[in-house]
Amino acid sequence: MFENKDTSRTSISTLGEFGLIDHLTKHFKIAQKSTVVGIGDDAAILDFNTKKQVVVTTDLLVEGVHFDLSYMPLKHLGYKAVMVNLSDVYAMNAEATQITVSIAVSNRFPVEALEELYAGIQAAAVTYKVDVVGGDTTSSTSGLVISITALGQVAAEKATRRDTANEGDLLVVSGDLGAAYLGLQVLEREKQVFRVNPNSQPDLEKYTYLVERQLKPEARKDITALLAELEVLPTSMIDVSDGLSSEVIHICKKSNVGCNLYEDKLPLDPQVINTCEEFNLDSTTIALSGGEDYELLFTIKQDDFLKVKANPHLSVIGHITKESEGTHLITRANTKIPLIARGWNAMEEKE
Ligand SMILES: [Mg+2]
To answer: Secondary structure of 137-168 in the HEC alphabet?
Structure first.
């Protein structure tokens, strides 16, 4: 986790718009050969000069909709905003190379707060070797808005789309599921406790993994590298941002296939299991619908099974069927339940 800085306040107006962006980005360094001109001109100049294809993705994060600054430190927010975008680049099996960052901010934020935000952005850029090559800052009358665009490159034959899964393929997910959502529930609960008793000290010891997954997610660049090392080229891939079941449905719909997903194969961290018990939540529902996991979900040919089988970072969670068979969860009790974008039908009955 990042440590907090002290909070002296300098008004944004003392720097002006151009001074502000210069001030916030002056320490940023260029790491990619493809960046010819970064920040500081009317536009960045990029020269990919390869036979690879370029991928582009963009995301918009709005205060009060996508994040809550009462428990999201600005440095973490900057880091996470970059991760959300890089995760989409890695889901295409591409190498992320550049990002642009634009923010709209109200004058309730002092320069020091924006420095924290940009420190998180810089930390992400350095760790993932992407160049920040542009962006804009403007004023907002209400909350903070962050828009990031990420670019990357991939050899045409290695790009992993959503619409290319085939019947008989195995469904694989990296890491584990549901922790980020539970981290949010823990933080929400602490916020309520703090409201009632502002002197209370949050006790997050038991939930460190969950809170870290919520506040400081990592895009799975390591998984695309691992797959290359294992010589496994997924037949389709997507990142898990909205929850596993909705991502599985995206792949199935786009590829015109169905699937069977197995409840007993869903990868869960022990903290997820324990906290679900404590909060009286169903861990399967959380794994399927929690969201913000930023893991990679992909399909592989059956021939590649042995290459991924015993890998601790990868779980085979199901297989692809004919479209006419639909998309289902096979429960531990061996019942077949239709998957819905937000969990599975049994969840609606429970609510
Ligand atoms: Mg995505």
So the answer is: EEECCCCCEEEEEEEEEECHHHCCCCCCCCCC
